[in-house]
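Morning!

As promised:
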Amino acid sequence: MREVYVLGVGMIKFGRYPDKDVPQLGADAAVLALKDAGMSIKDVEMFVCGNLFQANAMNAQRILQQIGQTGIPALNVANACATGSTAFREAYIGVASGMYDVTLAVGVEQMGKMGLLGGGARSGGESVEGVLGSGLMPAIFGQAGVEHMRKYGTTAEQFAKVAVKNHKHSVHNPLSQYRVEVDLNAVVKGRMVAYPNTLYMCCPTGDGAAAAILVSAEKAKQFTTKPIKVACSILTSDPYTERDLTMPDVNTLTKNAAKQAYEKAGLGPKDLDLVELHDCFATAELLHYENLGLCGEGEAGRMIDEGRTTIGGDIPVNASGGLLSKGHPLGATGVANIYEVVTHLRGQAGGRQVEGAKAGMAHVIGLGSACTIHILTA
Amino acid sequence: MREVYVLGVGMIKFGRYPDKDVPQLGADAAVLALKDAGMSIKDVEMFVCGNLFQANAMNAQRILQQIGQTGIPALNVANACATGSTAFREAYIGVASGMYDVTLAVGVEQMGKMGLLGGGARSGGESVEGVLGSGLMPAIFGQAGVEHMRKYGTTAEQFAKVAVKNHKHSVHNPLSQYRVEVDLNAVVKGRMVAYPNTLYMCCPTGDGAAAAILVSAEKAKQFTTKPIKVACSILTSDPYTERDLTMPDVNTLTKNAAKQAYEKAGLGPKDLDLVELHDCFATAELLHYENLGLCGEGEAGRMIDEGRTTIGGDIPVNASGGLLSKGHPLGATGVANIYEVVTHLRGQAGGRQVEGAKAGMAHVIGLGSACTIHILTA
């Protein structure tokens, strides 16, 4: 296995693009990543596209039709919300294997006018909601929050503080779908979606794309003096567990992945300077503090109270604004949070910069099930 | 890059399974491959599922729910008709990289009551036909045949002989969807679909699944004395060419892939003992004789006349019955033709055995575009 580096990243502002299609959005992000890497499409030797709703529509090849048809291996992957990060991982393995020196990963999604929370999804594809049951996502993450309240005395206000923090972070991210601060009162009194998550505590739907160029050590040296290393690339699926409805696989899935990630990277939670984690709902963020080992079991509520995960705290979480503000175009998210970590490790995150960041984690879960964790180091 | 071996293969009879779903069909094939390898799901370290129409439905994970949830990395890939072989290739890279010693690839499709040739496809997913235009496939391959007739004097009868040969082969394949001999007269006088391809010269639709277990050299030695080596695993996309409608990318795509395959494997067409190629239409088979270098440009008509590609000839093509008889459940095909080559290299192909086969090729094209070529050796 060879070492793999991220040489370039690109991302379009998440939001609504009714006049574009999936290949166009993906091409926009790919071109930004190529430009960032200082490369041409002719340098790319393999391309993996992650798109969920139109996973069978040959979007990898349709993106190449726009950015350059060089005849390279191109494939399309899907893995629920972990679609983009799974594409990134296959591109990573392509370089790690020694087969390629330069690979491209794109994550892209167009959710269009799909209702908030995926309700009434009509994507032209069989939807994840269709498979899992409409409205199941808010219910799962609501119940997981309630269970945490029951076990550890966590309060609805503590969960609400996640939304306050992430919306506050988003103001400094020009690529975030929403960039509006909200105060605790507004979050708590917002329309209830699935207790304890109110409207501001649920990620919006939208369109978006992000891309990354992965390279070998030798190639990285030719193009930059500050390569970002992929210290680990982990993908897990649901292990067999005796589940009950109130505690779905989100916890075990992430715990297993985190254990593997720290082991592989040779780093622990204390070595991380920032974490981009899968806050599809505010409740999920607190659960993942514990699942990722950022704090002990039952301590997540206190962690948010103490501001430790706000920018300026000891381990900023979702400096980008998180899925709650930045948006969650499903297939794009996995690459977008790698984009965010890379941007901080380079010191290019502007007003939201986590100062002196040397190591960061990008975490995604897809129910159904898939969990990816990438740890990146400067 | 490490050497990679196929330790186990499994395939269900292609046909109609209205009472099963995609995960069940995939699980059936996976269990057969595990049994063939002498392994348990606990031995598998990574799993790639190829399914086209429900590419976003988390079928990899749903198959694991049936055969064993061990928490391994699982992902879903799609690449038009090359979906299954692309899944096989990602599983191959997983082992070649040194990351895993044992990986599983499944190709599976349920086309159900979709009309012949994909017309009126209603899969619950955005269909390839939907993307490419309904009825385009027969037109493309019909026109490509007509162009060959114009350039080289190939006759409609010569194309028809492909159907006669493949249907003849299929009689000896218990897993083939159709196992009926047809004579030249019946083929030529069959209902015209898109000149020169009549009904018998077009592959049927159906349901099916195939699976393969890929392993490292060390692991292969532990389990078998007769490992089958993957001598090359090639994937190409459409290079930019000045196309006209009569000569679509099928030719260039395959020619590029073949050039890379022979180079990588260190073998030439004359070293092959059998070829399973993508005869979605009879015209395609003759074109691919030339694209794969089995004969010179314009010589394919004579090649079929001389019976060189019939079992017993110097380079049997589609001993399985080919897509024309065996069926073409899109996502399954790529793994199914690897199954066929492996079966011959092991000397286990019964009545259709290509005697003494030491090297074989599995070729698939997906319009849209993707071409895979795997050369396997005993």
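Chain A has a mean pLDDT of 92.

Hope this helps with the figure draft.
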